[in-house]
Design brief:
The complex is a heterodimer of chains A (416) and B (511). By secondary structure, chain A is an alpha/beta fold. Chain A contains seven helices and 27 strands. In chain A, strand 11 (157-161), helix 4 (165-176) and strand 12 form a beta-alpha-beta unit. In chain B, a hairpin with a 5-residue loop joins strand 22 and strand 23 (363-367). Helix content of chain B is 29%, strand content 21%. The radius of gyration of chain B is 23 Å and the shape is globular. Chain B is built from twelve helices and 25 strands. With 511 residues, chain B is of the alpha+beta class. Classes of the chains: A alpha/beta (416), B alpha+beta (511). At the A-B interface, strand 7, helix 3 and strand 14 of A face helix 7, strand 21, helix 9 and helix 12 of B.
Chain lengths: 416, 511
């Protein structure tokens, strides 16, 4: 069995992992990037639509183009990319990462590990929707892979459950390829995806969006034959009597959320109880000093550009071996309007960073209050589907250090 | 007709007339007995395998594309102790006996079987009286090792159980397994011993001659000559029964819904947990699964005779499971649900098996396999090829000296040490390429499954557990589809989830 010593081992070659490994390698660290698929790039490879890179490159790229930019940088900086590698386990006591591939088992002994393992799609089975279990039910990502990479349509008469971004993108993609896309149901009273995707993927193609609606039963023994949808009371979250409607379809595509993948480390690294993401500080350190993390395994982002930026931060900080890290962190405590924050802790003596927040509800005009008394920002059109990004500058950090806060409270107040 | 070129000598005994020929003391039997088993569920597959232990030509017919896809696929997967069946029932006779056969059977077929033991929890004095009744019944049925444990003893061993309980009935011989794997492995074993498997062959008729003996079985594909026909067709058993002109058994389906939880919940119990049973059923249980998950269920809903394909789950059924399991194990977290499903089990008004010979010479029943059908299956198979045949057609079968009981084990890389796995990869690198990341199943393992008979996505899933994990095939489905094409030589247009009309994908995006 091979044993390999490296400076930084990055696990997962999606947007976060590519950015992290580039930063680490450009600081002279021997950096290995592991990927279980045949090719680096992660889900970007199947996202052939455009809209990537507006923040990072100030231009609009497709997913494969966006990934390719990083691939070239990885070549330049000497990142060692190893594809078709599966991480079997991580042993924090021996600081060993055990991998398996067609070449056999390898035990890596890295000085630092960066977890960029991304997320997985919530599956149909976990939704507990009554009815049969026919073929023809796919998650949006699987459908996207079949259409864009394996040249196969999942079906002809299609309905979508959930209005997450991948689902919206797939509604348009399938409509463009001649499928009959009959509608999108969203259980919440507001869409799950970006406003631009509602406009460009549904409205432009006359695909109806049914809010406060969900699929309550699936029909068909072998292949999906029909679904029953019903409107839901937003308060009780139960189906409204008499609102049931049966729709004949052969395919149901799900875009009902992503789940951070942290199975490799969740036994020894702090995981957020509600988001299931890894808890990180503003330097993208986890609760275990050996392990850093970035990307959708930390929290579900809505833009890949933000994932890239946090990946960079993780890569930069993971490659600082000689320095002793500032240990003083302040926890972020969320008020009742905020569902998610990245990071979860602020390093008092750390570098400036961007704070990402996700509101729990739609707020026409709101004030984001951080501190209290540290930062106040007015934002218009706050939606759960779109993250709020607030730069936390050197000045803000200084003010934080001067304050006697023992935690940073964040909430969004309605009004101006 | 002599299919093997060998001639078998009939045993030293006088045999009466049967079928189309005589056998007398010392006479040379001109041809081998032709056995047709209808239905490749666990019962039919084990019966077919059992007949290959003797000098018979065995054909196993199955309407589905793979074995074990009816009742066998969706049940609690419990090998019952045998204390629950009223003495003097046919169930009681076969259950305790079948349970004891599972050790050797699981070794021969190389399938997972764990004697986890089972508890029946009592919450009241009345419940405790019931446990005492079970203890008496266990003794009568010859089930050994059962006892009633006090609350504290039980909680030491199963700390997550409801602390409100007063006592529990412990049966050490109960266990868990994968029923579909037994059916699939039994089919393989049968094939290794010369039996032939005909999937995709729904039976459309059973021919009986003018003397009232079976002549053969007609499927949608071909005609199978038969001296012995065994009806092990599960939910379809009454249709077959009526084909030979016998009175129907009045079977009706009883639906059981289940909730399967992720491995994260796996450590919550390490034995099968029952409530106190009712006359109707054994109740809603908490069952550890052999691959480390937890199964909750089943409900028990009697359906109309015609609903033999209604395996839909219902809101009411799933709610019922959720509301009842917490009484047994309060910490169960349904947000860890991986999937929900429902299975049907064939029930009769008599609530007992129908096993053995019939008025039609050569026609045997292995029907109404309600619970504990899975546990009883090996015992029923043994009985069928010996006592039942003797009683039904007056023949003692000649044993097949070439019978090989063992089926090769499926390689599971996740169960190997890293060193063993590494050595395996050195021999065949495909065992190092991960396909199912949730359950850690490699390309090599999926290739093995395809070579050993998997023809569909579910066929791979049930053999290898690829797609059984929390992502439910999200990552591996596109790869499994490629491997089915590569190793199974199944064109994309013919790929299905589980045969019949369950086509997986539509046309090409671009041609």
């Amino acid at each position: 069995m091979k044993e390999i010593r490296v400076d930084v081992l990055v696990i997962g070659a999606g947007a976060a992992g590519m950015a992290a490994s580039i930063e680490s390698a450009s600081r002279g660290c021997h950096t290995v990037l592991l990927e279980r698929e045949d090719c680096s790039g992660g889900v970007l490879n199947q996202c052939i639509h455009n809209g990537f890179g507006l923040h990072v490159f100030k231009e609009e790229l497709t997913g494969p183009e966006y990934a390719d930019r990083f691939r070239r940088q990885m070549d330049e900086k000497g990142v060692q990319v190893r594809t078709v590698q599966f991480v079997v386990s991580i042993d924090p006591s021996k600081k060993a990462v055990i991998t398996m591939s067609q070449e056999g088992a390898v035990v890596f002994h890295p000085k630092r590990v960066i977890m960029t393992t991304g997320a997985r799609e919530r599956a149909f089975g976990s939704l507990m929707i009554p009815g049969t279990r026919p073929s023809g039910i796919f998650t949006a990502g699987v459908a996207q892979r079949f259409v864009n990479l394996q040249n196969r349509l999942p079906g002809k008469k299609i309905f979508l459950l959930g209005s997450g971004d991948i689902g919206l993108i797939m509604a348009r993609r399938l409509a463009l390829e001649g499928a009959d896309v009959l509608g999108v149901a969203e259980l919440m009273p507001f869409p799950g995806g970006l406003a631009r995707n509602i406009a460009q993927c549904l409205n432009d193609f006359d695909i109806p969006l049914h809010l406060s609606t969900s699929v309550v039963e699936v029909h068909g023994k072998d292949r999906l034959e029909a679904i029953t949808i019903a409107r839901f009371d937003p308060k009780t979250r139960t189906a409204i009597d008499g609102s049931h409607k049966k729709i004949e379809v052969d395919t149901l595509i799900l875009s009902v959320g992503l789940i951070p993948q942290n199975e490799l480390i969740d036994s020894f690294v702090q995981i957020h109880p509600t988001t299931k993401g890894v808890v990180v500080d503003s330097m993208m350190r986890t609760s275990h000093p050996w392990i850093f993390a970035a990307g959708n395994n930390v929290a579900i982002y809505d833009l890949v550009d933000f994932v890239t930026l946090d990946g960079k931060t993780a890569g930069q900080n993971a490659s600082r071996f000689e320095e002793t890290f500032p240990s003083d962190t302040l926890p972020i405590v969320l008020g009742k309007s905020v569902g998610v924050s990245i990071p979860n802790k602020i390093v008092k003596q750390g570098d400036p960073f961007i704070l990402y927040l996700r509101s729990k509800k739609v707020i026409e005009k709101g004030i984001v209050e951080i501190g209290p008394g540290l930062i106040r920002r007015t934002r218009i059109g706050i939606k759960p589907s779109e993250m709020i990004d607030i730069p936390f500058t050197q000045k803000d950090l200084e003010r934080l250090r001067e304050s006697n806060l023992d935690r940073v409270y964040i909430d969004i107040q309605e009004g101006s | 007709m002599n299919t093997t070129g060998r001639v078998y000598r009939a045993p030293e005994k006088d045999y009466p007339f049967f079928g189309a020929f005589f056998i007398k003391r010392g006479e040379i039997m001109e041809r081998r007995l032709r056995v047709v088993v209808i239905g490749a569920g666990i019962v039919g597959a084990l019966i077919a395998r059992e007949f290959t232990k003797y000098a018979c030509d065995v054909c196993l017919l199955e309407q589905e594309i793979e074995a074990g896809w009816g009742v066998t696929k969706a049940n609690s997967a419990i090998v019952h102790g045998g204390y629950d069946d009223e003495p003097a029932t046919i169930r009681a006779k076969f259950c305790a006996q079948g349970n004891q056969m599972y050790d050797s059977l699981s070794k021969e077929l190389n399938i997972d079987f764990q004697r986890t033991g089972s508890y029946v929890l009592a919450f009241s004095d009345e419940d405790i009286l019931h446990l005492e009744g079970l203890l008496t019944q266990a003794k009568t049925n010859g089930v050994i090792g059962c006892r009633i444990d006090r609350r504290d003893e039980v909680l030491t061993r199963q700390p997550k159980l409801n602390k409100m309980m007063k006592a529990a009935f412990w049966c050490p011989s109960a266990g868990i397994t994968e029923p579909w794997m037994i059916a699939m492995a039994a089919v393989e074993s049968m094939q290794l011993n010369g039996g032939r498997f005909f999937p995709g062959n729904p039976v459309i008729g059973v021919d009986v001659d003018h003397k009232g003996a079976v002549r053969g079985v007609r499927t949608s594909q071909e005609f199978f000559h038969a001296d012995i026909v065994v009806n092990a067709s599960g939910l379809y058993a009454d249709r077959i029964t009526q084909m030979v002109g016998l009175d129907p058994l009045l079977l009706y389906p009883r639906k059981g819904e289940y909730i399967l939880l992720d491995k994260k919940m796996g450590s919550i119990v390490s034995a099968v947990i029952f409530p106190v049973p009712t006359k109707q059923s054994k109740g809603i249980l908490v069952v550890p699964t052999v691959d480390g998950g937890v199964l909750l269920g089943p409900t028990a809903e009697d359906l109309d005779q015609r609903c033999i394909e209604d395996t839909s789950t219902t809101r009411i059924g799933l709610e019922r499971i959720k509301s009842l399991v917490h009484r047994l194990v309060p910490d169960i977290d349904e947000s860890q649900t991986v999937k929900t499903f429902a299975g049907l089990r064939p029930e009769t008004p008599l609530k007992d098996f129908v096993v053995g010979p019939t008025e039609i010479k050569g026609f045997f029943q292995a029907a109404a396999m309600r619970s504990p059908g899975l546990t009883s299956a090996p015992a029923i198979a043994k009985y069928m090829a010996t006592e039942a045949v003797q009683e039904g057609i007056g023949i003692q079968l000649t044993s097949n000296p070439h019978f090989r009981p063992n089926v090769p084990k499926y390689i599971r890389t996740s169960e190997q040490s890293l060193t063993q796995w590494d050595e395996l990869v050195a021999k065949d690198p495909r065992y190092g390429k991960m396909i199912c990341v949730c359950n850690k199943i490699t390309e090599g393992e999926i290739r093995d499954a395809i070579i050993r008979g998997a023809r569909t996505v579910d066929g791979i899933k049930f053999r290898t557990r690829a797609g059984f994990g929390h992502c439910q095939g999200g990552f591996c489905l596109p790869k499994v589809v490629e491997l089915l094409q590569r190793y199974g030589h199944i064109p994309m247009d013919q790929l299905t989830l589980r045969g019949k009309a369950s086509a997986l994908l539509s046309s090409e995006v671009r041609t």
